Automatic annotation (TrEMBL):
GO terms for cellular component: periplasmic space. The lineage of its organism: Bacteria, Bacillati, Chloroflexota, Anaerolineae, Anaerolineales. It comes from Anaerolinea thermophila. It comes from the Bacteria. This is Uncharacterized protein. Residues 119-312 form the Heparin-sulfate lyase N-terminal domain. The keyword NAD does not apply. Gene3D superfamilies: 2.70.98.70, Chondroitin AC/alginate lyase (1.50.10.100). Residues 420-611 form the Heparinase II/III-like C-terminal domain.
């Protein structure tokens, strides 16, 4: 059976992923196995490279007016300084989660980066915990605090951490050189730090020279393995293009700089045109990666504007569409978005003081840059715009219509129904989100961890933990790897009005079952009706597991109803199924109500960012019924 599944993957993957991507990945693997990449990224001649870098480097962005910046931050400025103070004490919010001790030292062997990809060297734990501090998010934080306060402690802390990074990560050896994307993100961070700290007369000339050298060394890492980034068709390619273009502009006069600038711009434009759909959807089906893409585009267009460069109208139009799409998904009260798709805690342009799920800073800047309108009123989220030299606009963006979203006096709700043209992230067709007064009441669980012992290896991508129906505990698609789905489930929209949206998906077609879901607004809230219809003539019994992930609210169960406190909600389940129906409630992997053979471990968790999971309530309504037709409805009533 295992061999059969492996053969299916080998045959199906090139068809669904595309032969071009498959060929690029084959080139990458060939380069690894042949030793070509080892030869292309040897230990560099450090002093030769240093001697070729110009002594005088022009800043790639003008620094903002300090008084205006202080006014914009307002009451959030103490929080920024407190976080910077923590960095000086060796603590940082990895993945924008809780404050924790961090280090740039690691225990991994300092072998050539290609040895890690070939599994001839390895790290003991999740490599993301090595990569995250090396992305140098702390550099943005210390530079912002230094510029606002003038406190030299922040500059000294940066020098200490930067020197530690350089010492622990000799060029092209160790795990921090495995991914060229990581090198590209460091280029952005080091360029930002350079333009802020180099303004200080107390900043050592040696550190300024070392920063320029580090930017060059990271840029040299990118071109040899662009084939891997191309094969992925995702954020890797955009990040690496941005890294090349940034280094090219920053190191003007350095021999490879002009080629990097041209290559970066070309690849960036190609990637944007390829990865953003005609309706603004981003290829990775993830709100977090959608923001990452927009942030990198903001950085790219801002430094280009400063240099007198520009991008094609086709590219700018795609970025405008992507901005509108993300704005439509944003709760305008909280600034939060659904926790859709892969959520690895990335924030590659951390130029605002807000929690990880607050997207207002990025959306405000993107709306001004690509739509010529403000997304929100003025607020502390304008800080990112100031750093990127993006000006406020006269007009404000109006509410955008979305065919899969409903609005009412009780808030808003959305139904996920997508036709895939690139690989899916989560098996989440017909997932429903419900928002009320700025609070996300029907949650997407997120990701938690990519690399962990079972069962937590990217476990929250499955159908079971999304707000949809799982049949016989099978995913809507075939899990063929940690990040790979095959036999993609595609959806079709049947109806979309101001009060009702209906869609179906074909993920259970092989089982002979069609799942259709209708989301409707009602006078008191929302109704979600699921129809399970047989495509076969004979009656067959199946298990239908309807799941809702809800914040950890106080609740009371009354038969097939659940009463929640604060906000006061009545959730009622009904079915016309002929068999047994059972209600279960699970918090943080522990069963609170109901008994069954369901393994509770993965249920009742919400992960707002990478490596963080919080207790929530998984409400499972399980129906055993014979088709041809079973209807299950969830009625959400707001009691106040």
């Amino acid at each position: 059976m295992a061999n059969s599944n492996k053969l299916h993957t080998l045959l199906k993957a090139p068809v669904e992923l595309g032969w071009k991507s498959t060929w690029q990945y084959a080139l990458y693997q060939s380069g690894l196995r042949s030793g070509y990449f080892y030869l292309r990224t040897p230990t560099p001649a450090i002093e030769k490279i240093r001697s070729q870098i110009p002594h005088t480097i022009k800043s790639i962005l003008p620094l903002p007016n300090k008084q205006l910046l202080q006014h914009t931050l307002g009451t959030t400025m103490p929080t920024l300084l407190q976080k910077a103070d923590a960095v000086t004490e060796g603590k940082f919010c990895l993945f924008e989660g809780p404050l924790t001790e961090f280090t740039l030292a690691h225990q991994a062997p300092l072998q050539h980066w290609s040895q890690f990809e070939r599994r001839k060297a390895s790290v003991d734990n999740d490599i993301k915990f090595i990569w995250e501090p090396a992305r140098a998010g702390w550099a943005f934080l210390l530079a912002r605090a230094f510029y606002l306060s003038g406190d030299d402690r922040y500059a000294q802390s940066f020098i200490q951490l930067f020197n530690q990074y350089q010492q622990e990560n000799p060029p092209y050896h160790g795990p921090n050189w495995v991914s060229a994307q990581e090198a590209a993100l460091r280029i952005m961070a080091f360029c930002f730090a350079y333009q802020v700290f180099s303004e200080s007369e107390h900043f050592p000339t040696k550190t300024i020279s070392d920063l320029s050298l580090a930017i060059a060394l990271n840029a040299h890492r990118i071109p040899p393995t662009l084939c891997y980034a191309r094969s992925q068709r995702n954020n890797h390619l955009i990040s690496e293009a941005v890294g090349l273009y940034t280094a090219g502009l920053f190191l003007q006069g350095y021999p490879p700089a002009r080629a990097w600038e041209r290559k970066g711009k070309k690849v960036f434009e190609q990637a944007i045109l390829d990865q953003i759909d005609k309706n603004g959807t981003y290829i990775q089906h993830s709100t977090n990666y959608h923001r990452l893409m927009l942030d990198e585009a903001l950085w790219m267009t801002s430094i280009a504007n400063s240099a007198g460069d520009s991008f094609s109208q086709a590219v700018l139009q795609k970025l405008a569409l992507a901005t509108q799409h993300l704005y439509r998904m944003t709760d305008t009260i909280s600034g939060h978005v659904p926790n859709l798709g892969n959520q690895d805690g990335s924030n590659v342009l951390p130029l605002a003081t807000a929690d990880h799920l607050d997207y207002r800073a990025s959306l405000q800047a993107a709306s001004r840059q690509f739509l010529g309108k403000n997304a929100f009123e003025e607020g502390s989220w304008d800080e990112k715009s100031l750093w990127l030299n993006i000006k406020p606009q006269a007009e404000t963006l109006h509410e955008q219509e979305d065919t899969l979203q409903l609005h009412s006096s009780h808030g808003w709700a959305s139904l996920r129904a997508i036709t895939y043209h690139a690989r899916p992230a989560h098996a989440d067709q017909l997932h429903v989100e419900i928002w009320h007064n700025g609070q996300n009441l029907a949650l997407d669980a997120g990701t938690f961890l990519y690399n962990a012992p079972p069962p937590w290896q990217n476990a929250l991508r499955t159908t079971l933990v999304h707000n949809t129906i799982c049949i016989d505990r099978r995913d809507q698609m075939l899990a063929a790897g940690k990040f790979l789905w095959l036999d993609w489930a595609n959806a079709e929209i049947h109806e979309s009005t101001a009060t009702r949206v209906t869609a179906s998906h074909n993920g259970y077609k092989k089982m002979g079952i069609n799942h259709t879901r209708t989301l409707s607004s009602t006078p008191k809230g929302w109704e979600v009706a699921d129809e399970l219809q047989s495509m076969k003539s004979q009656a067959v019994e199946h298990e239908y597991l309807l799941h809702w992930l809800i914040p950890d609210l106080v609740f009371h169960v009354q038969g097939n109803q659940i009463l929640f406190d604060n906000p006061a909600i009545r959730l009622t389940f009904l079915t016309n199924g002929s068999g047994q129906s059972l209600l279960h409630i699970i918090r943080g992997g522990c069963v609170l109500h109901g008994e069954s053979n369901i393994d509770p471990l993965l249920f009742g968790w919400f992960s707002p960012t990478y490596s963080v999971k919080q207790e929530a309530l998984s409400v499972l309504y399980v129906v055993h019924s014979n088709l041809p037709l079973t209807t299950i409805s969830s009625n959400w009533e707001f009691l106040k």
